[in-house]
Design a protein that fits this description.
eleven-stranded mixed beta sheet, two-stranded antiparallel sheet, 10 helices
């Protein structure tokens, strides 16, 4: 009898290893409500929540989970984040103005992305929340790739499958990340969808119904602080360009979610299974607008992309405007003029005297400089006229 029981136990353990689990992420139909000291719900997520996890809300308040009762996470306010300190520096400062255009150009950014949970889908559009190996999340990825290309980015899109949706999915997708890193991307995104009521992610931007995005940081990975700062930079840029697009940032204590492999890795939740896939596609397309700012890349125009049709607006055409070289010459001439003006002002001490000096320079000095050559030119012209008369 003991042998039979041992066999049963081994079989149960084996079956449990094969059964999909959701402890690393989704609660499988449930969701956590973050409730503050005043009893207000400040945040909602379908992620499994632990004491010590944190979130930054859409309005940039930071909370920490102090206790959990069922599906209610009691949180305390840690403070409000000053997002301005995470905004990317403007190219319009004095140094940026003095740099030639070609020196500032950094080329096209390279963005890679993949899907750890290959099955994730959107019920209103896909009919169910999970489709093994062919989830609606892949079409959201297609929308992201298209929008990135429109914004001049180079795209590395992985459609590798990592089913089933269990605790080992991130181990399987880790191999995908290692392969993507060989192509030296500037950023890597793992694209998911959440599991919450639809209103948590629903919003309207520019008159369009779109799904918001949630950023997820595996706070305790080797690159945790770098990833945290990166997430804040992403939200700061998005808040400025598309306010309300980022629902918030969730700091998950449960794992690093492959973010330990690369300091510019981010897990994105694009809408929920209760939102339409079309709204998720619109949301991630808006997010693609923010990528050039996040990466500090110039981003080529769509027409200048490698698949541009010959003869369309692009490099070397009139519609493309001045070339980089001609713009650089223009910048250098401008810098030269500004330098002369600054020198005259500093040497004379007043704008009035600087103007007088500049007038003298352009009349007397230029006349003295060009005078001899003009005199020789006039003498040659007079001689030629006398020869013609003869």
């Amino acid at each position: 009898m003991s042998k039979i029981w041992r066999s049963v136990i081994v079989l149960l353990v084996f079956c449990s290893m094969l059964t999909p689990g959701y402890t690393q992420e989704s609660m499988n139909h449930g969701y956590f409500s973050f409730v503050d000291e005043n009893g207000h719900v400040v945040y909602i997520t379908g992620w499994e929540v632990r004491v010590g996890d944190q979130c930054i809300t859409e309005n940039n308040k930071r909370f920490e989970v102090v206790s959990i009762e069922g599906e209610v996470a009691h949180v305390k306010l840690l403070g409000e984040i000053n997002m301005s300190q995470y905004e990317q520096p403007s190219n319009q400062n004095l140094l940026g103005m003095l740099q030639p255009r070609l020196a500032r150009a950094q080329g096209r950014g390279k963005v890679a992305f993949y899907h750890t949970h290959s099955d994730e889908s959107y019920v209103p559009t896909d009919g169910k929340e999970s489709i093994l190996g062919a989830g609606g999340i892949y079409k959201v990825g297609d929308a992201f790739a298209s929008a990135l290309k429109t914004n001049g980015m180079e795209v590395i899109q992985s459609n590798a499958k990592h089913d089933p949706h269990d605790n080992m999915a991130y181990e399987r997708s880790r191999r995908t990340v290692v392969e993507l890193l060989k192509q030296q991307p500037d950023a890597i995104f793992d694209i998911h969808r959440d599991a919450t009521p639809p209103e948590v992610y629903q919003t309207t931007i520019n008159g369009e119904d779109v799904s918001k995005l949630q950023l997820v940081v595996g706070k305790y990975g080797a690159t945790g602080k770098q990833i945290e700062d990166y997430a804040l930079q992403i939200k700061a840029a998005s808040d400025k360009q598309h306010p309300g697009l980022i629902k918030g940032i969730f700091f998950a204590k449960g794992g690093d979610y492959n973010q330990d492999l690369f300091p510019k890795s981010m897990l994105l939740e694009v809408g929920s299974h209760t939102n339409s896939r079309q709204s998720a596609e619109k949301g991630i397309a808006l997010f693609a607008d923010v990528i050039p700012t996040i990466l500090g890349k110039t981003g080529a125009s769509p027409a200048a992309a490698p698949d541009a049709t010959a003869g369309e607006t692009g490099l070397g055409t009139a519609d493309a405007g001045p070339s980089g070289a001609s713009k650089s010459i223009g910048w250098m001439v401008g810098i030269f003029v500004v330098g002369i003006a600054a020198f005259l002002f500093l040497s004379t001490g007043s704008m009035k005297e600087a103007k007088a000096k500049l007038k003298q320079f352009t009349t007397t000095e230029f006349a003295n400089f060009f005078g001899p050559s003009l005199k020789r030119k006039n003498e040659r012209k007079k001689t030629n006229n006398e020869k013609d008369k003869d």
